[in-house]
Design goal:
This protein is an alpha/beta fold. The protein folds into 3 domains: about 70 residues, no CATH class; about 150 residues, D-Maltodextrin-Binding Protein, domain 2; about 150 residues, D-Maltodextrin-Binding Protein, domain 2 (3-Layer(aba) Sandwich). About 35% of the residues lie in helices and about 20% in strands. Strands 3, 4, 5, 6, 7, 8, 9, 10, 11 and 14 form a 10-stranded mixed β-sheet that branches. The protein has a two-stranded antiparallel sheet with strand order 1-2. Strands 12-13 form a two-stranded antiparallel sheet. Helix 12 crosses helix 15.
Amino acid sequence: MRTNFIYSLIITLISIFFIKVSKINTKENFITWFLPFYNKGTSELTSGTPKYLTSNLEYNYLEYDYLQEISFYLLKKSTSSITQSYYDFLFKNITKSAKVKKVNIIYEKNNDDLLKKVNENPFNLAIISSSILSRKMSTDIDLVKNINVIIVSNYRFIFFIANNKSQISRLLEINGKNINLGVKDSDENIFGERIVNNLQLTNDLKINASYDDSDTAFKKLINGQIDGMFYTDLYPSQMLDGIISQDLDKRLVIIPIQDINPKVFKERNIFVEPVSIDLNTLPENYLPVKVKDLNYTVYKPNLPTYRYPDFIVCNKKAEPRLSFNIVNSVVSNLNIMNQSQYFLRNGYNYLSFPGIANSMFFPIHIGAKIFYEKITISTTEPNDFCKFYVGNSKCTPDKIVGAKIITGIDGASEF
């Protein structure tokens, strides 16, 4: 009799088990449902959770419905067809992977307006250069107080372009010349002034500076109204390609970024990296070039310069899942992006992980931060990010900060 009762009890328990299991959300892993240390009501681990569990568990951030739409802001100069295909790819992936129904692409004429849009709205994102973001952090903190970095989206390059008649073959020869340093708070202005200041550290050098935008400066340069100008852009650059392809008289010469003190330049521009780009990627009519000792041919095409990153940024109150999935989209598709013409034409456009996660001293958004930490944290000390790991309730010392529960078949994509 007792044996029959035990068998009946076992059958009953098994039946209850399968009934319960059938009701479990398909995204929820069995370990979540049965884990004795997990409180489903509050989405938290209890204080008695053993440490050996917390090092291997992942927590799925509280579910939210599809975002109706987000807006992505770009600087107007970034609209070249060469890079637009990359941005289109990126935005489509965001729409698919981050539960966003619609992505609006909006172009702004200046960086301040772009940053204002992101600073004021958690549903706005932007692509902004590291140099501009760094400048604003030191000069206008209110404009970026709510800005967090997500990931490096691409790189920009520094150019100095001279009129051939000015016979400038190196940066030291800009002494006494008419040089455009770009409009205030532009990348051209930031790097132009810093390069000139760097040259002046060890040389008695003075210039006649102008501060026009790039369109105006190129017109003046071609007409001989100025001798040289600083210019920054992605490379290949649609704007530079277009101007050079029309410059059949070879009035424009791209000068290597040399003669400066590289150590001082790096210390004052922490994001820059020295590179050597291939001038063969410019229109065919550019090479060969010869000015005094400066000589570039198809067989000697490598121009010394510097690159620096652009960042995708968001409001610090943006949904963590959004920034997490932006990083996940980029990192998961690097092999595809790095096979596009944009990357194949210039090896220094190559994006690699974890290099693209390097934001230096800028605050990283919590969703991106979790991805970069490989979604594994083992700690018992509370911090500001506690609620994103153990639920929405207030963090206290008895909470396990790093505990995360796996809640999907593919834990890495289910944040």
